[in-house]
Design goal:
Chain A is of the alpha/beta class and 634 residues long. Chain A contains 16 helices and 17 strands. Classes of the chains: A alpha/beta (634), B alpha/beta (236). Chains A and B meet through helix 12, strand 11, helix 13 and helix 14 of A and helix 8 and strand 11 of B.
């Protein structure tokens, strides 16, 4: 299309039906891929001025759905719409028409007709109000109602017959009045009118009978009679309208209450499952129907509550399309019927969140008077789903920021900790290569420094690799049942061979149970904890273990200066060093320890030791029974 | 029988030039003859043509898996093979040891550690030939011919299984023994998989033969790999 699509206009007043008009126009605009414009005409000759505030609400709603808005002043509504249609070259004009009872409600009717007469170059889409009152009538078989009417009239005539021959005919009137009132009340206005007419005819007949012959001269009586019947009709009409209004108020109250209850339940929901449960409960109560949420998952639907025993359900892309455009005729509030169930789109503020599937429990399906409330329910559910999605997105963004921050901290720390030993090694090697003699002791110093620094580098790299592989799950604990003593021995042995005798007091009860652990990883933990303790607490270290119900506890405790409360948890984060910890270590040791213990499903905590110092406590779970011991073992 | 005029010949199969640069002067400085190969193919060819007394084999070679080189060497040579492997790769170590390697060195390693392992590995060949039956280290003494064990001169009574475990370790003479090897030596084919048996007997051996079982000097644990009996340990 080279030229921009011609717009679609929708005429809005303050009436409730504007919501339907907006939805219909929006749907038409999407279908034809055209812009749309919500128009309000301030007519100079308008019978009753529109509630401008309400108009504003509808205009905003249209704007939210993507419409442009415009307000024009014109002598009449039809004039204004016609002018604007021509001015914007609109391809279609959507407006409403009610079969309302009030004079001003027929305005649309006349406007539509008048616009048609003007011969506009645009499609006129006229929406009739749904036959809302139809369902409000008391049901009854037409045959039974007619029979009842006839019986009542017959009874009235019988009563009239009892009036004494010379009696006043006006006595008959209240009898018929009562009969017609009963009929109109019981079987509706239509039969009421019929009954009035029949009463008049019967009355005529009565006058023809010899019994009342002389009364025929009182023809004004007939006039009186007719006036009475007419007034009865009027009263009945008013009564009926009042009754409808009362019912409408009741219905609104019910709507408000059920929406409130649903909203409260949704606000408490934290998962899609909970939303589905809340929706199911409240829809079940308000519409006598079962409800499912269908959430699109790639090419299929995830039904909540599952399972959804309906294999005929079209895939998300198709169903969403038919819900969105559909080429559906009829009322835009009507749910899409499909194989016995009804479907409503759950559209949030910016995108579709899923579909609501309703399966009525009763044969009548979903009568039109429920559509509006259903749509309101759907809107609430969609908003709840959207809220969850946003929460999830916010949480993910938070996590990403956290990871990003962590990464940059890590990079900074690694950069520093790698560069320092490298610089020392590089410098020392350069000095050693300088021409000229270097004193023997200085040469040895430099060489020793190269060795120390490269060991530090190797250690740091090893730690980094371990931590990365532990956290990414590449490195898994290969657990085997074994005595704790062996791991303690391996760790102590390795440390002492490397650094000479250690002031470690070991207290392992001989009857400790076997524990499943990865010996290499747990040795790493012990070496880290013992090295730490030795670095911070020269006074000596206590290593002891004991068994607790369901787990084995191991403690490495020192008599050092202790760890400030604020650091007791933080020091397990990578690259966190205690203030004043001095040289050595880059702050990875404890992070690795915790990662390893967690890979064993255990816990590692630091606690203040009574009497001063810090106690690192490891708890390893003892799942089930250790394997059987060989025969002859103690 | 050692080759040449009593100086052991060592083949280094290692693709990293930096490590070769470190290994060659270290080894020649100790009086070994050194051959180097940077690839598996080159290493296998040199091994065939020169029949070295010991092979230092890196598991990560560019052209072939080091395990495959080990397998092919073991088809015809019983000479000691030392594996160079990265830290934390216990699975590879165990595979190499069970596949016939004598011992391993985890990178990074120092010159002292390397030379100590070399001596242990070379001694194996010498000792097997000498048929020596008494080994001693520190206060521990084991007489394999008379099946006697003593600690600080006092005889120690061991159960049959404990003794078989000790014997299996002694026969390796300082080299590491994997769990699978020890289980097979002590319990026979039925012992496979029952590593916790082994650990319990090892704990009992330590209680009988170590001064402080939580600081073992002789019965060393190689975590997730196996055990090593260290008799050369200097008494601290």
């Amino acid at each position: 299309m080279d030229t921009p699509a011609r717009p679609i206009l929708v005429a809005l007043g303050s009436e409730v039906r504007a919501l339907r008009l907006i939805q219909a126009a929006g749907r038409l605009a999407r279908e034809r891929n055209a812009p749309w414009l919500a128009v309000h005409v301030e007519a100079a000759s308008g019978a009753i001025p529109d509630d401008l505030e309400q108009v504003q609400v509808w205009m905003q709603e249209a704007q939210r759905l993507g419409a442009g808005v415009q307000t024009v002043s014109a002598p009449t509504l039809a004039q204004g719409l016609a002018d604007l249609t021509r001015a914007t070259h609109a391809q279609a004009l959507v407006l409403g028409r009610s079969r309302g009872r009030w004079p001003w409600a027929r305005l649309g009717h006349s406007t539509a007709d008048e616009l048609q007469r003007r011969g506009l170059d645009a499609d006129l889409v006229v929406l009739d109000d749904p036959p809302e009152a139809a369902g409000a009538e008391r049901p009854g078989t037409p045959f039974g109602a007619t029979l009842g009417t006839l019986l009542v009239l017959a009874a009235c005539t019988g009563l009239a017959w009892l009036v004494p021959r010379e009696g006043n005919l006006s006595l008959v009137l209240p009898v018929y009045l009562l009969g017609v009132a009963v009929i109109a009340h019981r079987w509706g206005q239509g039969l009421g009118v019929l009954a009035s007419t029949l009463s008049a005819l019967l009355y005529d007949f009565l006058l023809e009978t010899p019994r009342f012959r002389h009364a025929a001269e009182h023809w004004p009586n007939l006039l009186f009679f007719l006036a009475m019947l007419l007034s009865a009709q009027l009263v009945m009409g008013l009564l009926r309208r009042l009754r409808l209004q009362a019912r409408e108020v009741q219905r609104r109250e019910f709507h408000t209450a059920s929406l409130y209850l649903l909203g409260r339940a949704l606000a408490r929901s934290r998962t899609p499952e909970e939303i589905a449960a809340a929706a199911g409960e409240h829809i079940g109560r308000a519409f006598k129907a079962k409800a499912w949420l269908l959430l699109p998952r790639e090419d299929t639907w995830q039904a909540l509550p599952s399972p959804l025993e309906d294999p005929s359900l079209p895939p998300p892309s198709e169903l969403a399309a038919s819900l969105d455009l559909g080429g559906r005729q009829g009322d835009p509030l009507e749910p899409l019927p499909l194989g016995g169930a009804f479907y409503l789109p759950l559209t949030g503020t910016d995108r579709s969140e899923g579909v609501l599937r309703i399966l009525p429990r009763e044969a009548g399906g979903l009568p039109p008077r429920t559509w509006e409330l259903l749509q309101a329910f759907a809107a609430q559910i969609a908003l709840a789903l959207e809220r969850l999605r946003w929460l999830e997105e916010a949480r993910r963004a938070q996590l990403e920021r956290e990871t990003e921050r962590m990464r940059s901290t890590l990079l900074g720390a690694i950069g520093h900790d790698l560069r320092t030993p490298l610089a020392a090694i590089h410098g020392a090697a350069g000095t050693l290569l300088l021409p000229g003699d270097l004193e023997d002791s200085a040469r040895r110093d430099l060489l020793a420094m190269i060795q120390d620094e490269s060991e530090r580098l190797a250690h740091l790299l090893g730690d980094l690799l371990d931590l990365t592989r532990l956290e990414s799950g590449v490195l898994r604990a290969q657990k085997e049942w074994q005595p704790l003593e062996e791991v303690v021995g391996a760790a102590l042995g390795r440390l002492e061979r490397r650094e000479g005798p250690l002031p470690v007091r070991v207290d392992l009860p001989p009857d400790l149970p076997l524990v499943p652990l990865d010996a290499a990883l747990m040795e790493e933990v012990l070496i880290n904890l013992l090295t730490n303790a030795r670095r911070h607490a020269p006074g000596g270290v206590d290593l002891r273990a004991w068994s607790e119900p369901g787990c084995l506890a191991l403690e490495v405790a020192d008599r050092g200066p202790g760890v400030p409360e604020a650091f007791r948890e933080r020091m397990f984060d990578p690259f966190v060093r205690l203030p004043g910890a001095g040289e050595g270590g880059v702050g990875l040791g404890l992070a690795i320890c915790r990662a390893i213990v967690q890979a064993h499903d255990g816990t590692l905590t630091a606690e203040a030791r009574s009497g001063g110092g810090t106690a690192f406590r490891i708890r390893l779970p003892l799942p089930g029974e250790p394997p059987a011991l060989p025969e002859g073992a103690p | 029988m050692t080759s040449g005029a009593g100086t052991p010949r060592i083949l280094v199969v290692e693709d990293e030039p930096a490590l070769r640069r470190f290994l060659v002067p270290t080894l020649t400085g100790q009086g070994y003859q050194v051959l180097t190969a940077a690839t598996a193919a080159e290493g296998l060819a040199l091994a065939r043509s020169h029949n070295p007394d010991l092979v230092l084999l890196d598991l990560g070679l560019p052209d072939q898996d080091g395990m495959e080189v080990l397998r092919q060497l073991r088809l015809w040579s019983a000479r000691p093979i030392l594996i160079l492997s990265a830290r934390n790769q216990e699975r590879d170590k165990v595979r190499a040891l069970d596949g016939g390697a004598d011992d391993y060195l985890a990178k990074p390693f120092g010159a002292a550690e390397l030379l100590a392992r070399l001596r242990v590995a070379l001694r194996r060949t010498i000792q097997t030939e000498a048929g020596e039956t008494v080994v001693a280290g520190g206060s521990l003494r084991v007489d394999l011919a008379r099946r006697e064990v003593s600690l600080e001169g006092r005889p120690v009574h061991l159960t049959t299984l404990e003794y078989r475990l000790l014997e299996a370790l002694v026969r390796r003479n300082g080299r590491v023994a994997t769990h699978a090897q020890l289980l097979a030596d002590v319990w026979g084919p039925g012992g496979a998989g029952n590593t916790h048996y082994l650990r319990i007997y090892m704990a009992m051996l330590r209680r009988k033969l170590e001064a402080d079982p939580t600081r073992p000097r002789h019965f060393l644990t190689e975590p997730n790999v196996g055990y090593r009996l260290e008799l050369d340990a200097s008494e601290g």
